[in-house]
Amino acid sequence: MAVIKIQFISDFVCAWCYIAKRNLDAAISLYQKTYPGGKDDTFVITWAPYYLNYNPHPHSVNKLELANERLADQTPEQRAALEKRMNRAGQASGIPFNWGGQLGPNPATRTAHQLVYLAGEAPGAKYDRATQTSLVEAIFDAYHCRAQDISQHDILREAAQHAGIEKADVDDWLQRDQVGIMIDRNAEANKVATRAGVPTLVIQDSHRPEGIPDAMDLMEMFIGVREGSA
Questions:
Q1: What single Pfam family name could you report for this chain, choosing any that match (predicted)?
Q2: pTM across the whole model
Q3: Distance, CA of 204 to CA of 224 (rounded, Å)
Q4: DSSP 3-state assignment of 29?
Q5: Which of 25, 70, 112, 200 is most buried (most C-beta within 10 Å)?
Q6: What is residue 26's predicted lDDT score, i.e. its pLDDT?
Q7: Is 157 helix (H, G, I), strand (E, B) or coil?
């Protein structure tokens, strides 16, 4: 049995991060179903925070308005081509992107990252890694598919409960400001470490796939790590 460690550096407002997460899910599933002995190997994913800080305003703002500000130098044709590309990439990963909704003030995803850390990585964490990954998926889905403002506590409560986390635990975690300060530090350190932005995957502390790796590319890396360790 092998343990394959993956650090996944991302921000929840990043559409490509969601696509990369889905590709990672598919790669792990394929590996465990097809590689000899793969079902007995363990994947340990660390969900590392990153802040894209798309919203410079002190309040929640419509995502389309923010996109207009960030992409002001693009022509309408370029914008349409980008949206078409993103929608196609999302469909290939089973993600029905909804570009509407609101984005909270910076750092808009701090509390979301805080909940993910407390769900599965904090010392004495009550929930397992599978529940933590379910929470990651639920937050991505809330923002990208349900057009929900994930800076709002009620939205995060709903996502956490959907992942199987008790409401009382979520309410407790939302009050842990010291953890939020730690998330701030980690997000800043990850911004320095990644350089190329997000998503960034680091497999077994050394392998970094370029761009947005597809499931087959990731599976080949898993096999390389597995056979190298053997």
A1: DSBA
A2: 0.96
A3: 10
A4: helix
A5: 112
A6: 98
A7: helix
Burial pattern 62-90, b for ≥16 Cβ within 10 A else e, equals ebeebbeeeeeeeeeeeeeeeeeebeebb
Secondary structure of residue 42 in the 3-state scheme: strand
Contact 8, 21 (CB under 8 A): yes
The residues of the chain scoring below 50 in pLDDT are none
Q: For the packed helices 110-120 and 153-162, what is the interaxial angle rounded to 10 degrees?
A: 30
Distance CA 10, CA 200 (A): 7
Q: At what angle do helices 15-34 and 76-92 cross, to 10 degrees?
A: 20
pLDDT by residue (tens digit) across 106-151? 999 999 999 999 999 999 999 999 999 999 999 999 999 999 999 9
Give Cα 137 to chain centroid, integer Å.
7
- pLDDT tens track for 211-220: 899 999 999 9
Say whether the peptide bond before residue 199 is cis (omega within 30 degrees of 0). yes
Predicted pLDDT of residue 230 = 52
The dihedral over CA atoms of 102, 107, 110, 111, expressed in degrees to the nearest 10, equals: -50
